[in-house]
Amino acid sequence: MAAIAVELRDVVKEFAEPEKKGEAFAAVNHVNLQINDGEFFSLLGPSGCGKTTSLRMIAGFELPTSGEVFIHGKAMGKTPPYQRPVNTVFQSYALFPHLTIFDNVAFGLQMKGVSQLEIKPRVQEALAMVRLPGYEKRKPKQLSGGQQQRVALARALVNRPEVLLLDEPLGALDLKLRKEMQLELKTLQREVGITFIYVTHDQEEALTMSDRIAVMNRGKLLQVGDSSGIYESPNCRFVADFIGDTNFITGKVHSRHGDTVSVELTSGVWVEAKSDQALNTGQSVTVAVRPEKMHIRSGTRLPNWFEGRVTNIVYIGTDTHYSVRLPGDQLVRVREQNDMPGYSRPLANEGDSVWVGFAVESARVLVE
Amino acid sequence: MRESKSVQGTLLATPAMLWMIGLLIVPLILIVVTSFGQRDPDGNVIYTFSLHNYIRLAGIKTNCGDGAAVCFDSLYLRILVRSVGLALATTLLTIVLGYPLAYYVARAPARRRNMLLFLILIPLWTNFVIRVYAWIRILRAFDLLYTPQAVLVGMVYEFIPFMILPMYTSLEKIDPSLYEAAADLGANSLRTFLKVTLPLSLPGVVAGTLLVFVPVMGTFVVSDILGGKQFELVGNLIQGQFLDARDPTFGSAASVILMGMTLIVMIIYTRKFGFGEEVAIT
To answer: Does residue B81 share a domain with residue B7?
Structure first.
């Protein structure tokens, strides 16, 4: 088991709400989290979910209202940012506009009192690492957004921090550059072996880059896992909805055999789905199924197969998306890959009656 | 298209240019011409080319009491040096006193900032002379009236808003995440101030210096009222020559020297620091 780089232990951060006098708003609400040494860890969630506040507490820009932040086992307490073994890449890059690229990157080393003799090669090495050699004498304003982003990265990494904190660093870049930088960041992280904690609201970005992801919403930590774990077995409706597309079918628990649960839908039909949570008979639940795990067939009597009517078809090249209305007025989306040999024709036309279904293993019972 | 635009620009600038030529350039030329003239016994200007006024300003005299052909009187040179000294002292004090205040206002919550700026500007609503008169009572209470210190206090009081405002503008423009970045990279608050805040606010200090130094060099009201004729500045000298001594030629010569000195100090200063635009950044 790898050593733990950063741990949040029952961390709460409350902010006073100016509108409601005296009332505090918990931006981060009793979060417990352990981040391993050398891992690329993402904090994922919508804006206002507490991910940036969590990051800022690790950096030391905010102090927890209660709870404790540990970095390599050391309680941070009220340690100011300039004494923490972490560095941050800011969303706005926050490059010093009056300093050259060289002086920007050298800033941290100068503050630490590293000798001038050592600073020069280290700055050059850092700039080479982010593929910006020869830019030493320029000013930040003379660089493009992507280049500034790289300087910000070099300025942080040159200090060889124990943990690198990245606050939506690709947010201001255009899509193409963003994709490039995602891969570059991931490669860079493997090369330097430093723990990266990456804050993003972009689920695709998190899935692409991370070893593990923590999904947050409204100050709470909902689920921690690797990309496939989060995607394939979300533990609540929010995670299933936030990451990728999901069909939600509502019903009540009827019976259970091991981890297979029978759910009676409002329409009276039954589906079988998997769950590892404790459930009571009659409890209201949601069955979540990814559109790509649903299929259209001409006819079958297997469990979880229903007759429905196609209401909409969207052809997008690699896939075709079908909207199908099930009995009980439940609308589901089905994504079929166009991988049949030759010219792919739609499996059905709008208005057709079709059989729609999914494997029991593809469906999860969610309580919330 | 391009040409018509530049024609348009010239047309738009014409009224302002005529204004400047008529009310600035022409009077300046008149002053320079007058400074080389001489005063007749009735107080009228005789336009000649004579360096008489400048020689007098330099303190070289021909009608000496002890019968010598030429002697030296440093009276006017002392006035000039005193004026430059007071302007430098006032500028420095307004920076030292104004900077912390500008910093405080710039870092205050957005909604309180306008209120604080408003408070700084309120004194300017009252007539300058009236406010200087108010200082007479305060300074008398401290037994400072009619001293050089009194003049300095009055000057700093009068000109500090013009230093605070540009410094505030510079400080307010600094992205707060730069302070965090500096802290993140290991700089404590003092080093953050020296390495980030101060250099980034320098354009404001430079602009404020231009706004304070130049008018202080020419002012005469404060020294007149609070200095009680004990502390004569170039401004007082010029005023006296025009109004009391009725010698516009000597007053003009003093004006030319004042402009020349101000210009020299400003050239040296702006060569080094610029005009307060964002030179440090690009």
So the answer is: no
**Structure ipTM:** 0.84
Same domain for B146 and B64: no
Interface test with B, best of A53, A101, A107 (most B CBs within 10 A): A107
Which residues, at least 6 apart from B244, have a Cβ–Cβ distance to it below 8 Å?
Answer: none
Check A107 against B187: CB less than 8 A apart: yes
Note down the domain range covering B109: 77-281
Structure tokens at A364: 């999860």
Residues of A near B (Cβ–Cβ under 8 Å) read: 59-61, 80-83, 86-88, 90-92, 94-98, 107-108, 111-112, 139, 141, 155-156, 159
Is residue B23 domain-shared with residue B117, that is, in the same domain? Answer: no
What DSSP designation does B105 have?
Answer: H
| Pairing label, strands A40-44, A212-217 | parallel
CA atoms of B75 and B77, how far apart (whole Å): 6
β-pair partners for A256 = A261
- Residue pair B186/A111 in contact by the 8 Å Cβ criterion: yes
Q: Considering only CA atoms, which of A259, A238, A265 is closest in space to residue A364?
A: A259
Residue of B nearest to A109 (CA): B185
Task: Tell if the CB–CB gap between A111 and B187 is shorter than 8 Å.
Answer: yes
Compute the mean pLDDT over every residue in chain B, rounded to the nearest whole number: 90
Is the pLDDT higher at A266 or at B148?
B148
Same domain, B251 and B177: yes
Residues B199 and B153 in one domain: yes
Instruction: Answer yes or no: do B6 and B146 share one domain.
Output: no
Segments in chain B forming alpha helices (H): 2-20, 26-35, 52-58, 75-107, 110-121, 128-141, 148-172, 176-184, 189-192, 198-218, 221-227, 234-243, 248-273
CB distance B180–A88 less than 8 Å? yes
In DSSP notation, A159-227 reads T--SEEEEESTTTTS-HHHHHHHHHHHHHHHHHH--EEEEEES-HHHHHHH-SEEEEEETTEEEEEE-H
With beta carbons under 8 A apart, name residues in chain A contacting B280: 98
Instruction: Tell me which of B17, B46, B72 is where a domain ends.
Output: B72
B84 and B38 co-located in one domain: no
Report which DSSP code applies to B25.
I
Tally of domains in chain B: 2
Please write the tens of the pLDDT for every residue from B69-115: 788 888 899 999 999 999 999 999 999 999 999 999 999 998 899 99
B46, B72, B98 - which closes a domain: B72
Contacts of B184 in chain A (CB under 8 A): 59, 61, 81-82, 86-88, 156
